[in-house]
Predict the 3D structure of the following.
Amino acid sequence: MIERRALHWLAASVTVVVCLCDAGARAATPMLPGPVPLPPDTGSDWEPPLPNSEAADWIRLTSGEWLTGSLDRIADETVYFDSEELDDLELDYEDVAEIRAAKFHTYRFDPPGQDYLIRMGTAGLHGGIFRVNDGERIHEYPRAQLVVMVAGAEGEADYWSGTLGVGFTSRTGNSTQTDLSANVMIKRETPLTRAIAEYRGSQSSTNGSETANNHRVNAQLDSYLTRDLFLSAPTLEFFRDPFQNTDVRATVGVGLGYDLLDTPRYSWEIGAGLGFQYTELDTAPVGAPNTDGNAAVTFNTSATWEPNSRLEYSISYRLQLIATQLELTNHNLTTVMSIELWGPFDLDVTWIWDRIEKPAPNQDNQRPASDDYRLSLDLAFDW
């Protein structure tokens, strides 16, 4: 009997000690700062957080998980979030239930039947409602009306992004061959405009003789008229390839574009316009002019597909229909498969098709082949 009571007292003592130790451990463990969760019955009384340039941004997923870090961007139904623990994330907008952003950011909303609206301030998303506090009043919109969010209050550096890719191959032995390819893309995107400039080029030589030398520059400024419709003015293209007997081909024009599809995994846009094309041949037959200018009807389309977070496939096609000389109509098709290697570094596999319906003859009165194909493997850096 005494032994049984002793065992009971021992068990009770151990339980008390364990509870005291657990309480002490909890008291000694610092709690991570976090957002104060809004109660389920908050209704319409909640407000965005107060301004705090040092505070972290918070998002809550529909699964109930909270993430802390930096809200970098919301675009194309995707939330770009730099998590303190998980690094850069790309989340479907529909999977984000709440947002708490105490820093000033820039937001574009597109209410039906109204012109687009730009709001700057702190913001919160809760219960399907987006609210922005600009310091004077709180503006409220359904979450579906948010088109773009740009980090910062119109800070210029926040609008810029780009890609730099380089590929190089050198072979020596019985023959000496070098291949160099490069691509550069620079983009400035605000809630209302998008400016893109892109360069692609390649050079090759074998035993000291040049075997390829082509360069293409495309640039355009897009201004959104509605959520999906945009004006492209101007559009510019420069092309050079002596092996297609083209020393300079420059086209300037204007056009309209439309976003047919815009989801986190798929995007597709089309565009058409009018332009003027100036062409200067590398060489021309004796007595024939080596320059020409013509009106052009342009058409372009591009699409991207992201099957997962590490792989992206894009394809773009451009047609320049030369109304006054149909034989000079030209095509360009570019496909890129981009594989994420580490952080901002990708491996790009690029295939390009260039075609001139009927290339102009050179000084020997010979016409180059209509089609050129190129395949390159580049290491790309995104910023």
Remarks:
- The two ends are 77 Å apart (CA to CA).
